[in-house]
Specification:
By secondary structure, this protein is of the alpha/beta class. It has 3 domains: about 270 residues, HUPs (Rossmann fold, 3-Layer(aba) Sandwich); about 120 residues, no CATH class; about 55 residues, no CATH class. About 45% of the residues lie in helices and about 15% in strands. Strand 5 and strand 6 form a beta hairpin. The longest helix has 26 residues. It is elongated and about 100 Å long. About 40% of the residues are buried. The protein binds zinc ion. The site of zinc ion (ZN) has 3 residues, from loops.
Length: about 500
């Protein structure tokens, strides 16, 4: 267990706070997972990767982490204002499938995409439809405490009543009076007492096929209650970290807090963490803008906005290059740059992995750079998970590794420092940032290198035999691919792409 001081920006408190878990050595963490009614897209990748890195880092620090990431398979309606069809049921109707076939199909696809991105599976992945009883019991507690009312077989959370005892809107910074102003007037037909009230349970209409029995009606849970019920079940009524995209701040996370306070009288979450959103060529991603890119489209290059396919690691790297609370703009150029940067660090990883210390001298500067590498990376992660700085630290030391590799000698560094550095670099690359090295690219690079070396040997033989025609011919051919430098006894070469 490292006595590392991790600081996290807490959205609820609007400040960086020292992370201190509720139970020593244990971290309970929850992430709102996908609603599985369509292919996973770029918007799904960011929270998954962000909280995967946090999961990995907390584990590295020595915590036992229970990471819960749910699957929403019921209750998320087409319209967030508790109206319209269930998103999954709608998809099932359009595709002539059972709703649970839709859920199965897109859950498997989501898992496949997450695997490609090297996102670790969570410790528990609960489904909303598997926790109807827990949700009903929680709603009963909220009604019992006076914060919800029954109307025509549905149950609504009473925001006005709740506000007499607790603040509402603290997380998102929204004020109910403003919200009221911006919500359309009730048409008199509504079952809600107040437009701000939100559904905890909805009575199913005859055409609604996903329904369960409850004390109030045959119906289905509202979208927000599943996260409150499932997080309490697996992590306790108060737990450490709740994550999600900033788009979930309101109403989803605000409602989660209200429900948990209403049922248990306790703040459910100690640290709220939100990743920022992404744009595509400067525009918000949306189906209507034709810039909605699924992960399968990105990895295959099959989308009109893409110039070529991009690897899952290029995408992962692209997200790690930004702080999770900054927006990311995706473009072909940005992804290209990320792909190149990733493959540079991947090459360094592969060189270093098989390198053994064989130095003879210690150079203070080299020693200093390499001995501070691990702590510099830890400091960056402790500073609200600044993966961008970790990557820039990795770029800084790549020169040293390249010199070791070309010279065949780990000169200038002590054995102890070299081994500590090598271990830290490899751990940060694979275990913490979750990057998978590009072995096949390195393989072809190695084969290419062997070919160049062999041709240079033939050229040297030719020169010895004074066959300058052949020697020059080989030189001319090689110069198309690499930069050659002749010295008295040998020829060295550098890999530089010739135009
Ligand atoms: Zn949620």
């Amino acid at each position: 267990m490292t006595d590392s001081k991790l600081y996290i920006y807490n959205t609820l408190k609007r400040e960086r706070e020292l992370f201190e878990p509720l139970h020593p050595g244990f971290v309970g963490m929850y992430l709102c997972g996908p609603t599985v009614y369509g292919d996973a897209h770029l918007g799904h990748a960011r929270p998954a990767v962000t909280f995967d890195v946090l999961f990995r880092y907390l584990t590295y620090l020595g915590y036992k982490v229970r990471y819960v990431r749910n699957i929403t398979d019921v209750g998320h309606l087409v319209n967030d204002a508790d109206e319209g069809e269930d998103k999954i049921q709608k998809k099932a109707r359009l595709e002539h499938l059972e709703p649970m076939e839709v859920v199965q199909q897109y859950t498997l696809a989501y898992h496949r995409n997450m695997g490609q991105l090297n996102v670790k599976p969570p410790s528990i992945e609960p489904r909303a439809s598997g926790h109807i009883i827990e949700q009903v019991l929680m709603i009963e507690k909220i009604i019992e405490h006076g914060y919800a009312y029954i109307s025509e077989g549905s149950v609504y959370f009473d925001v006005k009543r709740f506000e007499k005892d607790y603040p509402y809107g603290e997380l998102s910074g929204r004020v109910t009076e403003d919200l009221q102003h911006n919500t359309r007037e009730l048409d008199g037909q509504s079952e809600k007492r107040n437009p701000l009230d939100f559904a905890l349970w909805k009575k199913a209409s005859p055409e609604h096929i996903m329904h369960w029995p409850s004390p109030w009606s045959e119906g289905f849970p509202g979208w927000h209650i599943e996260c409150s019920a499932m997080s309490a079940k697996y992590l306790g009524e108060t737990f450490d970290i709740h994550g999600g995209g900033m788009d979930l701040l309101f109403p989803h996370h605000e409602c989660e807090i209200a429900q948990s306070l209403g049922a248990n009288g306790k703040q459910p979450v100690r640290y709220w963490m939100h990743n920022n959103m992404l744009t595509i060529n400067g525009q918000k991603m949306g189906k209507s803008l034709n810039n909605f890119i699924t992960l399968d489209e990105l990895f295959s290059g099959k989308h009109s906005l893409l110039e070529k396919p991009y690897s899952p690691m290029a995408l992962r790297f692209c997200m790690l290059q930004a702080h999770y609370r900054s927006t990311i703009d995706f473009s072909n150029k940005g992804l290209d740059d990320a792909e190149k940067a990733y493959s540079k660090l991947s090459d360094i990883y592969l060189l270093l992995k098989d390198m053994n210390w064989n130095g003879t001298t210690v150079n203070l500067e080299v020693e200093k750079t390499l001995s501070s590498f691990e702590q510099d990376c830890i400091d960056a992660m402790n500073d609200d998970m600044n993966t961008a700085i970790v990557l820039s630290n990795m770029f800084k030391v790549s020169t040293n590794v390249n010199i070791f590799s070309t010279s065949g000698k780990t000169e200038g560094v002590s054995k102890e420092t070299f081994e500590k550095f090598k271990n830290a670099y490899c751990t940060f690359f694979t275990d913490i940032l979750g990057l998978v090295p590009n072995e096949s690219a390195a393989q072809s690079g190695e084969e290419f290198g062997n070919l160049v070396d062999s041709l240079l040997e033939v050229r040297n033989e030719a020169k010895k035999k004074k066959d300058f025609t052949l020697a020059d011919a080989i030189r001319n051919v090689l110069s198309k691919f690499v930069t050659l430098k002749d010295s008295a006894d040998k020829t060295s070469w550098k890999h530089e792409k010739k135009k």
